[in-house]
Amino acid sequence: MKLLRAIFFSPLTLLRLMFVVFMSGYVVVVGWFWLNLFGFSQRLQQWVMRTWGKSIIFFLGIKIDRNELPASNNFILMPNHRSYLDIFIVAGLTPAALVGKAELKKWPFGKLGAKVTNSILVDRSEIKSMLKTMHQIKASVNQNIPVTLFPEGTTYKGPLTKPFKNGSFKIAADTGISVIPMAIHYKDANDAWVGKDTFLGHFFRQMGKPYSKVFIRYGKPVSHSEYKILQSEVKSQIDDMLNELNQIASH
């Protein structure tokens, strides 16, 4: 009932939701034809991710304050994870292949979308999942397509980061691929999507605002053969950047 009332009294939010669905379908369909006509390429992957991310960022009224991504050809981008909005932001700013849960295949356009964006959907119930993921990440980076991986493994409201999963750092350490830390901080803490909150419920509560402000900071590339050291350095950088962004956002 609350959701129905929210839909009725927030035509802007409904329009935005329809646009998200439309754009998701549009880029996947165009990407599918492109894939079948010309095969997979970095150009296809970047067009799909950037077009999808940037158009949705614009239509949702997401205003971004950010620094520049460090120059690097091959890297794994590791952001903290606050909300589903992170996906649109990362796609628009850094059109990397995403590493996500296998459950995303069940989302509308999820399975085909992963195919045209070279994204890696991980089934954590598989014993050989990490080894398979490592090979896929290495193959993607070797094609000059960076990879985005959320080391917390789930969304977290903050103010800093929750403990990181070990697997992603073992992969980065074993492959020798450098990691670029990324801090994401929303001015409105309620933009975080956590716990048992539903996607639609959260979307209709938060996306009726004229705009949402988000602060993005990229850190310095880190590489190390010892995954625990790599993990510690990346977490330290992200937490330091989040501390800084908390202070900036409060003024």
From TrEMBL:
Molecular function terms, GO-annotated: acyltransferase activity
All copies of domain Phospholipid/glycerol acyltransferase, residue ranges: 75-187
Transmembrane segments: 12-35
Keywords: Acyltransferase, Lipid metabolism, Membrane, Transferase, Transmembrane, Transmembrane helix
GO biological process, one term: lipid metabolic process
Compartments it resides in: Membrane
GO cellular component: membrane
Xref: InterPro entries: Plipid/glycerol_acylTrfase
Predominant localisation class: membrane
Name of the featured protein: Phospholipid/glycerol acyltransferase domain-containing protein
Species annotation: Maribellus comscasis
